[in-house]
Automatic annotation (TrEMBL):
Assigned keywords, A-Z: Signal
Position of the signal peptide: 1-33
Protein name: 26 kDa periplasmic immunogenic protein
InterPro entries documented for this protein: 26kDa_periplasmic_antigen (IPR052022), SIMPL/DUF541 (IPR007497)
Record-linked Pfam families: SIMPL (PF04402)
GO BP term, example: DNA damage response
Length: 248
């Protein structure tokens, strides 16, 4: 007996039912969402560290100022006076490497006494020649300051105290700045119920070094036997830092 040319109706019905059931099972499977992890929170804190130390050096900035009618005469007078200052400083044990010329200039002096709208006349000239002296033994500072003025300097512009190992002190201040920032960040993190994670970035936002102490000694009269009383005190070197941490 020959097989039928076409499948029976019952076989077709079974195939359709099986295909429909498979499609229903696929559509009923739960969908899995691709959720990106939430970005970690951060905290940013500033810190400051400072170290105070006694200075062990000083720099005197002094000048000789002379005036007169002729530039040649004024310059000659000024040059002789500043040479005398330098000679006296060297004779007191200061090496040449610690003496440096600063702020040389020749300036016209004008006569403004005439009531006129025209350019005032030049009445003479002023010559200023400065010198910086580094003193590595602070016990000599008062005596050298007196010596500088007595030998011809008529303007003491500043005294600057320095620390010979300033770079090392600054590094200590930087470490303290980081500790300060971490301490404050830890307090805020604990209060918020989170922990500090890794440092995301860190930036030094500034450093502070000792500044010159300004003083004037124009026309200052000193007794030859009296040294200028100078107290070095302490110098403060500081650093500031900004740090950002991730939170966990």
């Amino acid at each position: 007996m020959n097989a039928p040319l076409f499948p029976s109706v019952s076989l077709l019905r079974k195939a359709v039912l099986a295909a429909g059931l498979s499609a229903a099972l696929v559509s009923a499977a739960p969908a899995v969402a691709q959720v990106s992890p939430a970005p970690a929170g951060t905290i940013t804190m500033q810190g400051r560290g400072a170290v105070s130390v006694a200075p062990d050096m000083a720099v005197i900035s002094a000048s000789v100022v002379t005036t007169g009618k002729s530039t040649a005469d004024v310059l000659a007078e000024n040059s002789a006076a500043i040479a005398k200052v330098i000679e006296a400083v060297k004779a007191n044990g200061i090496e040449a490497k610690d003496i440096q010329t600063k702020g040389f200039g020749i300036y016209p002096r004008y006569d403004h006494s005439k009531n006129s709208s025209s350019q005032p006349d030049i009445a003479g000239y002023e010559v200023r020649n400065g010198v910086e002296v580094k003193i590595r033994d602070l016990a000599k500072l008062g005596g050298l300051l007196t010596l500088v003025v007595e030998s011809g300097a008529n303007s003491v512009d500043s005294i600057r105290f320095e620390v010979s190992n300033a770079d090392e002190i600054l590094d200590e201040a930087r470490k303290k700045a980081v500790e300060d920032a971490r301490h404050k960040a830890g307090i805020f993190a604990a209060a918020a119920g989170v922990d500090l994670g890794a440092i995301a970035d860190i930036t030094e936002t500034g450093t502070e070094m000792p500044r010159p102490y300004m003083m004037r000694a124009e026309g200052m009269m000193m007794a030859k036997s009296a040294d200028v009383p100078i107290e070095a005190g302490e110098e403060t070197i500081s650093a500031n830092v900004t740090i950002r941490w991730t939170l966990k």
